[in-house]
Structure formats: C-alpha cells, structure tokens
Specification:
Number of helices: 27
Strand order of the largest sheet: 1-2
CATH superfamily of the largest domain: Exocyst complex component Sec6, C-terminal domain
Distance between the termini: 132 Å
CATH topology of the largest domain: Tetracycline Repressor, domain 2
Radius of gyration: 49 Å
Helix content: 55-70%
Low-confidence stretches: 1-120
Strand content: under 5%
Shape: elongated
Length: 701
C-alpha cells in the first residue's frame, strides 16, 4: 500500500533493509493473539518512553530516543515471558508501568473529579472509546505507534501501519465529537478526557519533532489543538449562534424580525459564555485560556452577523435597536456581567462593528431623532397657539398658572437627549437637539406679538400662563448651559428674554397707565406741600397691583414686580428732571432732598416686601438728594464725579437737569461741573443701567 511504500522509500534511502513478517499464518495462536492486541515483548536494550513529558533532542538525525522514565523492565520482561494467560500478563505489565509514571498536575486534578475510576480489567482501544476514555485510547495508539516506529524496529507490516492509521482516524473523529458536544453538561467528563488526549498528542508531537522527518510516522505532527480543537470551537460557536434564532424566548415579543434575531443572538452569547465560565473553565488546562478564546469567538461571530444585517438599508427602529445592543446591552449586560467580567478582558475584544458601519448607523439614528424632536416641538407649540382662541382658560394648579407647554416639551427633549447620548456617547451632539427649540421659540414669540394686538378678554390669562412657560424654559437652558458654546447660550437666552418682554410690556403698560394719576403729582407743588400723602397713594396702588398677580407663579410674579420696581424709580427720576419744581434757596433744596430719601425708603421697601431683588435701586435717590443739599461748587464737582463713576450711563443732560433744580447755581459753575463729569466718567459699562432709561430733554441750557 501507499503508506508502506512511502515508509519503505524513507528506510531504503538510509540503506536499511525492510524485513517483513517471517512467520505469517504459521505463528502459534498465543503469538497471534498477542499481535492482535498490540502485546509485545520489550527487550532489555529498549527503554520505555515517557508518554507525557519529553525533552528536545538537538540531534535530529539520531535514532528516535525519547526521554525515559524509571520503569522496572526486568519485571516487565519476566511478566511477558511467563506462561500465564496473555490478558493477565498484559494487565500486570500495565499496572507495573502505571505505578512508575509521574502524571502532570492537570492530569492529577482529574482524580478528584467525577471521572470514573479505572476498571479492574484493562480495556482495548475500542473498549476505551466505547466508554469515552479518550485519553486512555490515545495512550494505546501511542504505544502502538512507538512499537511500530520505535528504535530499530524494522519488523512492522503494512497491515499494522494501516490499522494504526485507521484507529488514529477513528480516535480523531471521536475527539471532534467530544469537542462539538462541549456544552452538553453530561459530556463534561468526556471533554476532560479529550483535552488530556490533546495534551498527550502535543507531547507526542514534540517528541517526534526531535527526530529527523524521514524517521517519523507520516501523520506526525498531528497538531490536534491547532487543526482540530480550535477550528471546531469556531464551528461550534457559529452553529450555536445560528441556531439561536430558532429558539423561543422573550425576543418573540419584539416588533420586527431583525430585532428578534439580534436579541436571540445576543442572549445566546451571554448564556453560552456563562456556561463557559461556570462549567467548561474547570475542564480546561489554564494554558488554553478558554474564557478568552470563547469570548473572542462569540464576539467575532456576533460582529459578523451584525455586519450582515446592517450592510443594507434598515428601518429606524431596527437601527436604534442594534445601536442599543452595541452601546448598552452587550458591553454592560454581557461583557460586564458579574460572573463574566473577571474572566473576560473586554478591552481586548475590539469594537462590535467596524467604524464605517457604526458611523452609518449613528448618522441614520441621529438624523431620525432630529426629525422626531423637530416634529414634536412643532406639534406641541402649534397646539398651544391654537388653544388661544377667545374663551380659552389656561389650567390652574393650587391657584397658580401651571405652564403646560414647557412641562410637556422639556421632558421629551431631555429624555431624547439622554437616549441619544447613551447610544452615541457624545454629549455635545446629543445636547445639540436642544437647539431645535430655538426656532420653535421664535415662532412662539411671533404668535405672542399677534396675540397682544387682539382684543380678547382671556389675553391676560394666556400671557400669565406663557410667563410660566418662558420661566421654565429659561431655567432649564441655564441649568444645561455648560453643554453649549457661550454664543449659543447668549442667543437662546436673548430669545427667551424677548418673549418675557412681550408679556411684561403688556402688563406693565397697563400698570403704568393705572399709576399715571399718581405719577403726575410727583415733584409738583402738591408733592412738595404734602409729600407723604402722594407716596402713600403710590405705595397702596403698587400693593393692589401685586394682589392682582397672585395667580402668577411666585418666581414669575417677582420678576414682573422687579421690573416694575425699576420702571417706577425711573419714572420718579424722570418726573424730577422735568423741572416743574424750582428750588430757589438752600432750605427748599434741603427739604426736597429729605423728601427724596423718604420716598426712596417707602417705594423700595414695598417692592422688597413683594419679592423684588433690586436692592441697588435704594441707593439712587439718596445719591441724588446729596447733590441737591450741597451748595459748594467744589463739593458738587466731587459728588458728580462719584455719581458718574457709579453709574456710567448717566449723561450730561441728566446732570444738568438735576443741577437746574438748584435755581441758585451759576452758569459758570455748571460749565465747570460739566467738564468734571467728562474727566471722571468710567469707561466701563455698568451691569445695572438706570439713567439710560430716564428720558430728558436734550436742550437744557
């Protein structure tokens, strides 16, 4: 046969003569029985090879001389030559050898496992296979291999070689089956035996590697781990994940077939890796690094399937679901599972999808989310504006307007931002969805401007409700402003302030109209003659107005009254600078200055009590009153310079209008003070502009 011809050619090449079987059929029955069962007599000049460990022999052309172990060969020979029953002799020989061979740590570990103890009678090759004792079956193959190809053994026959080759192939098939059945809990002991046999095969490969190639069996090296074990694991993983799609589980409730497949596959990955950690890890030697190996295989197979599913266009729901597996479920529920995390280094696995595939999914997802949020906002604001028809009553909760629009819109935006950030892992991109609010707010402002031009009885109620919406939007924008560029925040806050001003202007214009009769009495002879009565009337009117806004949210009411506080003080100073009252002497100027201080205290006190935070306004009238009291031009110059420093928005017209109240000041003193104002004006703008709101006549002198 071909096998024998190859071996003959190799031996003939070295000048050695191949000897056939000289006895053939004439052998006695006992000798035939020994040959059939691979029983052989070991001469004294041959040493038994260690079947587990070996040393590299640098002399590759030397006759095969593997590492030896301490074996009592005299005892073996005596047993072999004795006239006892061949089976009994064989059993004694095996027991003698087994007692001398040292086992590696991995094989020792199997003694405490559920692996069945060795039978009381020895098994042949087929018997070991029937009982799934693959390691023992492999050892019999090794013994036969060494008998046929050992040192100076030139008496092997072609039939013996063919039989050994067939048995080796049968063994490898059984080895494959054991590996493919790894996830069967009842197969664990068989798997352990299979893994021992792989280690033994590797040891045998290493021993034959020390021998020249023409003296080895043609099937060496077998490379069981690289050529059988590792490819079979890959096949096993691919098969299990492929079959996972046909299993029934919670994935059946998902809405699309793609979602169901991804869910089933992902759950199978988790389920199988848990089996690897809980069961298979104990079957494998440490150098197999089996947890990492399986994790890598499942990762690669899952990745390949996801690439197939995303290669063509998919629906938005499927896109979002795949991203959720890539960014949330797989890394957190699978790789970071409490039982898996310590056994799997997820940083070595790489991304589940290549960058180009992932980016395409992310772009599709974000584009759809943008459109979704844009439509939500458009529909929400349109519905709000549509409700403003005559007769609409905004909702009140605990006596205050609630602002349903902001309460409905903001949770949708925030929820979407969090969802997008979880899948895209990019805060700046996620929060950019809030920019879609800008266009809706601008449109909302246009609708408010149109509303205040109408003549509807429910406009005040609508604007009160709108103020609450604007306030909630503003607070939210300020809370998340660190996610945006300063220019973006400035623009958005400007839009919101414009909306608030529309509402405030509507209310304040009507309030000032109501207060106008009182304003007209300020800084007139009536005011000068009975100062306290005029201011008391003003304070009572302000308190009444505040009560009219009790149905406004407290924070919104405080903002409105704070603005009213500023405008009342502006109106007071404007009335003063109209010069309807002339203070001709020092006594009148000091009296007017005292009235101003009292007025400031009364007006500011009532506003502070109502919630205004504009404390700085309480200092303006006292500063102006000091100018009225001073008579010395030099002192006036210093006080005017201080005023210009504190309030950079005060103009020359404001100062001259104030000084013109002092009828006893000369034109030359006015000009000197005017020059002092120019020299001492602060170049910086004040954050609390006041005098720029006070309108005075341009021509004073």
């Amino acid at each position: 046969m071909a096998l024998r011809r190859v071996m003959e050619e190799k031996d003939l090449g070295k000048g050695e003569e191949i000897q056939g079987d000289e006895h053939g059929a004439e052998e006695n029955p006992e000798a035939q029985y020994e040959k059939q069962n691979h029983k052989f007599k070991i001469p004294k000049n041959i040493k038994m090879k260690n079947l587990i460990t070996s040393k590299r022999n640098s002399k590759s052309e030397a006759v095969f001389r593997p590492e030896v172990v301490d074996v009592d060969f005299e005892a073996i020979e005596c047993i072999a030559d004795s006239p006892e029953d061949p089976e009994e002799k064989s059993q004694k020989s095996k027991i003698k050898i087994a007692n001398k061979i040292k086992l590696p740590d991995f094989m020792k570990r199997q003694k405490n496992s559920k692996y069945p103890e060795a039978p009381s009678v020895s098994l042949d090759f087929n018997g070991n296979l029937e009982q799934n004792r693959l390691a023992d079956a492999q050892q019999l193959l090794v013994k036969a291999e060494e008998r046929l190809f050992g040192s100076n053994n030139l008496g092997r026959t072609e039939d013996e070689e063919d039989k050994l080759l067939r048995d080796s192939e049968i063994f490898r098939e059984r080895l494959k089956f054991a590996i493919l059945d790894s996830f069967n809990e009842e197969n664990q002991e068989t798997l352990k035996s299979a893994l021992i046999s792989i280690l033994q095969e590797e040891a045998q490969d290493r021993r034959w590697a020390e021998v020249s190639e023409n003296q080895r069996p043609i099937w060496r090296p077998t490379e069981c781990r690289q050529k059988i074990h590792d490819p079979l694991l890959k096949t096993l993983v691919e098969t299990r994940l492929k079959n996972a799609d046909g299993q029934e589980n919670k994935a059946d409730k998902l809405s699309t077939s793609l979602k169901r497949e991804v869910c089933r596959t992902g759950k199978q990955v988790q389920k199988d890796l848990l089996i690897v950690v809980r069961n298979l890890k104990e079957c494998y030697p440490a150098d197999f690094d089996i947890c990492r190996t399986y994790a890598q295989l499942y990762h690669q197979t899952f990745s390949a399937r996801l690439q197939e599913l995303t290669r063509s266009s998919i629906e938005f729901e499927d896109c979002a679901y795949i991203l959720s597996w890539i960014k949330i479920y797989y890394p957190k529920d699978v790789l970071k599972h409490k039982e898996l995390e310590q056994h799997i280094n997820s940083s070595l696995l790489g991304p589940l999808l290549p960058e180009e595939h992932l980016k395409r999914l992310e772009d599709q997802y974000f584009s759809c989310k943008e459109n979704e949020v844009r439509n939500w906002l458009s529909n929400a604001f349109d519905k709000e504006v549509d409700k403003w028809s005559d007769g609409f009553e905004p909702e009140l909760i605990e006596g205050c307007y609630f602002g349903n629009l902001a309460v409905d819109v903001l949770p949708l935006i925030e929820g979407t931002v969090k969802e997008v950030n979880a899948l895209l892992e990019c805060e700046s991109k996620s929060w950019s969805l809030l920019c879609l609010l800008d266009s809706s707010l601008l449109s909302y402002g246009t609708s408010l401007k149109e509303l205040v031009k109408r003549k509807q009885e429910n406009i005040p109620k609508i604007l009160r409700d709108s103020l609450v919406n604007i306030y909630v939007f503003k607070n939210y924008v300020q809370k998340v402003e660190h996610f945006f560029l300063e220019d973006t925040i400035t623009t958005r806050m400007s839009i919101l302030m414009d909306l608030r001003n529309i509402c405030h202007t509507y209310f304040l214009s009507r309030i000032h109209k109501e207060l106008k009769p009182v304003y007209r009495k300020l800084w007139t002879q009536t005011w000068f003659a009975g100062n306290s009565e005029v201011v008391e009337e003003l304070v009572k009117a302000i308190e009444k107005i505040s009560n009219d806004f009790k149905d406004l949210k407290p924070a919104c009411r405080e903002e409105l009254l704070a603005e009213l506080h500023v405008e009342v003080m502006v109106e007071y100073v404007r009335r003063m600078m109209k010069r309807k009252l002339k203070l001709k002497d020092k006594e009148k100027q000091e009296a007017a200055a005292e009235f101003m201080s009292q007025d400031s205290n009364e007006i500011c006190s009532v506003f502070i009590k109502l919630g205004s935070k504009e404390d700085w306004l309480s200092k303006i009238l006292p500063k102006l009153s000091e100018i009225l009291k001073l008579q010395d031009p030099g002192s006036l110059q210093i006080e005017i310079a201080t005023l210009a420093r504190d309030y950079p928005d005060i103009s020359e017209q404001h100062v001259l209008a104030l000084l013109n109240l002092k009828a006893n000041i000369s034109s030359s003193d006015l000009r000197r003070i005017k020059g002092c104002l120019t020299d001492n004006r602060s170049p910086q703008e004040s954050s609390t502009a006041f005098f720029s709101k006070v309108l005075v006549k341009r021509k004073i002198i």
